[in-house]
Amino acid sequence: MNQSIQTGKYNRKILITLLLVGTFIAVLNQTILITALPQIMVDFKIDANKAQWLITSFMLTNGIIVPISAFLIARFTTKQLFFTAVATFLIGTLLGGISLNFTMLLIARFIQAVGAGIMMPLVSNIILLITPKENRGSAMGLVVLVICFAPAIGPAIAGGIVDVLSWRYLFYGTFPLTLIVFICAIFTLENVTETNKNEKIDVISIILSAVAFTGILYGLSLAGSLGWGSVKTIGWVIAGVVALWVLVVKQLKLSQPMIEFRVFKYNTFTVSAILVSIAFGTLFGTETIIPLYTQNVEGVSALTSGLILLPGAALMGIMSPFVGRITDKIGVKYLVVLGFIVITVSTIPLAIIGIEKSITFIVIFYTLRMIGTGLLMAPIQTGAMNAIPQYLFRHGVAVYSTLTSIAGSVGISIIVSLYTSISNNGDLNTLESEKYAMGITFMVITIISGVGLLLALKLKKEKTQEKIEDNVEMSS
């Protein structure tokens, strides 16, 4: 193994800041088009099911790229990966701004997502490596601040820009900011990860991963227009599930798997993985349909629909570092359980009363949902990583990051498809069907969140530092 860690030659705070800023910009683009979707739908004459792929495709590509990250982190240096990720993201951003049609814009989003998909696990892995074990909860709080706060605040930022200018300026504005990060990295970035030139990747595994996740997500997206019982819908989902099963079997047989599924033999990691999937899926699904509903049915502007999401995003971002510190002191379980209680309880009124009552009503309960999400994100990730030995960190990060991306994509596909399939019911007029669809959709989200609460009760009560010490002993 080729040791490329340059001990003492970098400033940890500057390095973390640079990586987090770059990741913030990249992850921001997961959801920055949410409030712009109605305008894009008009410009390119497409429906909501097709438009949501601009969001889903980003997360889907992350889900395909991120599993390869364990190989990339082992095979290439920090500088090589970071500069490649940022350069790729810049190309996609430029292409997005000048897109002439929906297909061109969708391709641009795929290219952007490749860069973001490399960057997210790289940052998490580096921070885990260079942060003292007793401070990892706080460090993960900063990572959560980026990974959760950036996409949460994206729609609000985008709403103002779309109202004043157009959706193209979401790309024009992102490009110079990313370029500044690239230039700063030239002067400040150092290699902090280990490289192994003998590390290899299995191409068939990459193909299986792409087929599995694309099949499942495309099938789910078809449900909104063709129906959940459609042969085409079911066929795509089944094809994706079969490919996923083959992928898992193959990875377990490889000496150097692309995705190390053996991390799931650690019960706490498995439970945490399911919980984060539920949290991310309902978070992004809710965040996507609220702007669609408020703009198309309630007639509010893109800025207003973005501002509806802003208070919750801001509070979740502010909370994240503090929640990380609390996690270091009291452990994971209590915060995760409390988070799911808040999420579940705050979703019930949206399902029962109906969000058409008032904009204030939407803001209050959506904000409460985001507070609940902020309470559990850092503890879940900290608990998941602390449940596995240190030598599995890069694989754990890859699996965890893949799940968050895929869960977000699946959440958007299922929730948007459910919403559109119900709202297209011919027995109701357009306005009433939209309101009825939103109520049913939030009821489903409430049930899913409730399942997460029950599962959270299965987490162990140990403090994170104690678990880390156990894992260090296991890996030594």
Automatic annotation (TrEMBL):
The keyword Disulfide bond does not apply. It is found in: Cell membrane. It comes from the Bacteria. The chain crosses the membrane at residues 14-41, 53-74, 81-100, 106-130, 142-163, 169-189, 201-220, 226-248, 269-293, 299-322, 334-353, 359-380, 392-416, 436-457. Its main location: membrane. CDD domains: MFS_LmrB_MDR_like. Residues 15-464 form the Major facilitator superfamily (MFS) profile domain. It holds the Pfam family MFS_1. Keywords: Cell membrane, Membrane, Transmembrane, Transmembrane helix, Transport. It is a multi-pass membrane protein. InterPro entries: EmrB-like, MFS, MFS_dom, MFS_trans_sf. This is MDR family MFS transporter. It comes from Metabacillus endolithicus.
